[in-house]
Design brief:
With 319 residues, this protein is mainly alpha-helical. It has helices at 2-6, 11-29, 33-46, 51-69, 73-78, 86-103, 108-120, 124-137, 142-159, 196-203, 227-236, 238-252, 280-291, and strands at residues 185-187, 193-195, 261-263, 295-299, 313-316.
Length: 319
Amino acid sequence: MQANEQEGLAWDTYHHVFELVHNGNMSFRENRMEEAINFYSRANSIKSGDPVILSNRCAAYLRISLFLKHRSPSASEYKPLSGLDPTIHAELGLKDAEKVVDLRSNSVKSYLLKANALFLLEKYEKVRDVILSGLQVDPFSDSLQASLKKLEKTLASLMGMSTHGQPERTDDFDCTVCLKLLYEPVTTPCGHSFCRSCLFQSMDRGNRCPLCRTVLFISPRTCSISVTLKNIIQKNFPEEYAERKQEHDSMSNYGVDLIPLFVMDVVMPCQKFPLNIFEPRYRLMVRRIMEGNHRMGMAIIDSTTGSLAEFACEVEITE
């Protein structure tokens, strides 16, 4: 009773928090992670900042993120994912882990939780820093030593290092849509990487990941390039990446005298014209125009001859 008073909780409140945490632990053991998170969140709303509650909820978030990242494509095909994606779960787990580290900076488990969250977010340099900080607390921690070895192995595979220390070209850096070296790679919330143009060309036909069929809520305007992955590819395969860039530029830059022609309607000079485009082929054309000089020609079919009109108007896509 004295311990409860020191924590500022009445006995009935303490008992309620204890029951919530106990139920959360039971759900965790039975692999019902969403239910466990709900119990831990309710307990945290009553007893905010408790390191045990936060660490348990962090572990549940990370377990869900790990499950979603390693979910088989066949399972996603039959039952598409909904709700939060693996990255969001990992970020929520990281927030809890950072609070736990602040509360228990002398605990190895705190650093291990934070390192696991950062590992799922693929922030490998920060993972190393956290592990080294944890090893200062306990230099002989087996779990932290194992995490450090896992990190080194992952970084080595990303760099594609052969036994002689030279970059080795593997299909790990290939786009699964075009089967070529990734160019301007974009990593989806479900953890798969594609060429930026390949991904959005695929999404013209439906907003699902081309590999695992996860529903994606991203757009070309808001989705940024994976800078880390791009730098790794450019550093290790500069010649092949330059060839991919040249190939991409040739498809979007038509030269001084060549512009794409869109047969649709008459547009007069200085007239603003809204484009309502739904077909995938036209979406692809407009996206390539936006990657170039934003200009195209618009013309109509001459009703008297049934052929393309002799004159067209050059227009610029402004939005």
